[in-house]
Structures are given as C-alpha cells and as structure tokens.
Specification:
Blueprint: E1 23-24, E2 29-30, E3 43-47, H1 50-57, E4 62-69, E5 72-79, E6 82-88, H2 93-108, E7 109-110, E8 115-116, E9 124-133, E10 143-151, H3 165-181, E11 189-192, H4 195-201, E12 206-212, H5 232-238, E13 242-243, E14 246-252, H6 255-265, E15 268-278, E16 283-284, H7 288-304
Parallel strand pairs: 3-6, 3-9, 9-15, 10-12, 12-14
Antiparallel strand pairs: 1-2, 4-5, 5-6, 7-8, 9-14, 10-11, 10-15, 13-14, 15-16
Helix pairs in contact: 2-6
Length: 306
C-alpha cells in the first residue's frame, strides 16, 4: 500500500501553531516571495522561468500586483472578472516547493496573531511548464496534462502522508513493473493531480503520468562525462509501463512535489506541460517560445472559465 514511510497513523492534528520567523514584520511581506496577504488570487499559475510570468500577465485585462525577489516573480491581475496570480518558482522541485509553502501561509496564517486561521482557504495551483516526452508518438509542441506524478526524488518522504487507493494501486503496479526490469536509484512516491481540474484543462489533450526528477542530467538519464546509473535503457523500459488507461508520457522536475504538497495542505493542483523535445526520436521543437505561447493562450481561456 505504498512506501513504508508514507503513513499518518497515530498523527495528532495541530490546529494552531506559531508562525515561523520567515515572515518579515517590518515589511509585512512573506519572506523570499516579497508578497503580502491579499496580494495573491485563489487561482495561481506556476511557471519555472521568471521570464514566462510576463508572457502570461500580458494577457491580463488589468494588473494589481507586481513583485519579485530572486527567481520568484509574481504578477496578480484579472482576465474579465477572474482574478489570477502568476508566480515563477525556479527550475526544479527543490526550489519550487518553497513558494508552495509560502503561498499557503499567505492565505491560511493569521500574521497578526501568528496562528493558523480557523477557516482555511483552498488554492488552485496550476503549473504551466515545459517537458520532455518519452513516448514516440508525442511530438514536440504537444500538450500533456499530468494525471499522476511519480517522484524520483526523496522530498515527500520527509512529510507524513497517506496515499489514496488509486495512488497506492499505481505505486504497487510500478513496483511490480520495476521488479522485472531494473532498480531505481531512489524510492519513488506517487500523487494524483486534481481530477476536475484535469478534466477542465485537459479536453482534447494527452493525459498521462509524469516522472519528476531531482535534476536535469543524471536523474533524467543524460550523461556527459560523469557516469550515470539511470540512462536511456531505463527510460526506454519505463515508456512501456501502463496503469489503466495511462502511460508514462513525460518527465520534468516539478509536478510530483506540487501534487504532494497541495494534497497535504488541502489545495487543488494540476500540471500542464508543453513538450519541447522527444527523447526517443531525438527531435526538438523549432520555436520553443511559440509553443509555450500556444499553451498559455489555450489554458488561459480555459482557466478564465473555471
């Protein structure tokens, strides 16, 4: 029923705890992001590249907030009556988990009393990212909705969680598959994205399982000079894995952690990636900016209708 560490048995809920010292009382802004409570919408689009924030916010009808610190850039505005925030999170799940926690604090902590609010707010977290495909029929430029994220990092093993039945079934199916093929250099974990969001944003698009790696080179099977334990042969085998109607479609560095932390914090999360390269056919998109813009335009229209 999942990895042995993934248990919440005998865990006591803590309704009120002090807020850690990562808020700035002088500036009344949450640390790292430079945002105040009220600066963010309940629907938040996350992107890895800070430059992608303005490629999205240029479609806003009005702008309310522009903030930035380090790699974290945030714009809040409206499309029609729909209030949206776009936030860059950095390139991998190590950095991207930080804003997830900060965003939750902005809506669910009382900064005056320094306690958790009694009434909690559920955020919609929608990743608009880029990715590589491991299925031969997924051409560069295709859009993929992640129904599940498989984490090849160890991040969520530091949290207490209980997988759903479907997640446990996927985890067990993956373990059985791997037992016949190869051993991963890490203990994977599994989280499912939000079903209703996947249905709303995924109409007519490929929907599958996303591998989330803890790095760009060795963890994604790329070898320059340093030898790797996880390479092209393993990726080729993983593309044959199936779980019901879903197959492993793509890999990147953010989705599984986004899904996992959203689940733990009571938020809704989904991930949409545009395929920039196909690792099997060794093909790459001609104009990355054009296909990213196409994804943005399609999903903004759908998100505005949520």
């Amino acid at each position: 029923m999942g990895f042995a560490l993934n248990t919440t048995e005998n865990v006591t809920a803590m309704p009120s705890i002090p807020i850690p010292s990562w808020s700035s009382p002088l500036m009344e802004k949450v640390y790292h992001l430079g945002l105040r409570p009220g600066d963010i919408a309940e629907t938040i689009l996350t992107v890895g590249d800070p430059e992608r924030v303005k490629r999205i916010s240029r479609h806003f009808d009005s702008m309310e907030v522009q903030a930035g610190k380090r790699e974290f850039v945030a714009h809040t505005g409206r499309i029609g009556q729909k209030r949206l925030t776009v936030l860059s999170t950095g390139m991998d799940r190590t950095i991207s988990t930080l804003p997830s926690t900060r965003l939750d604090a902005l809506v669910n902590f009382d900064f005056d009393r320094r306690t958790i609010r009694e009434s909690l707010t559920t955020l919609r977290l929608i990743r608009l990212g880029t990715s590589g495909a491991i299925q031969e029929d997924l051409d560069p430029g295709a859009l993929v909705i992640s129904r599940f994220g498989i984490g090849l990092d160890n991040l969520m093993h530091y949290y207490q969680f209980q997988n759903t039945l479907r997640e446990s079934e996927l985890w067990e199916a993956l373990q059985e598959f791997l037992s016949y093929h190869f051993t991963l250099p890490t203990a994977p974990y599994v989280f499912e994205g939000n079903g209703p969001l996947a249905e709303s944003l995924g109409k007519g698009l490929e929907q599958g399982i996303t591998l989330t790696s803890p790095g760009f080179y060795g963890p994604q099977g790329r070898q320059l000079r340093a030898p790797v334990r996880f390479g092209g042969a393993e990726l080729d085998q993983l593309r044959h894995f199936r779980f019901g109607a879903y197959r492993i479609t793509n890999f990147e560095m953010e989705t599984s952690a986004l899904f996992g932390l959203a689940r733990l914090l009571g938020h809704e999360a989904i991930s949409c990636n545009v395929i920039l390269g196909n690792r099997i056919k060794k093909t790459f998109v001609d104009d990355p900016y054009a296909v990213v813009d196409r994804m943005i335009e399609l999903q903004l229209e759908r998100i505005a209708a949520l």
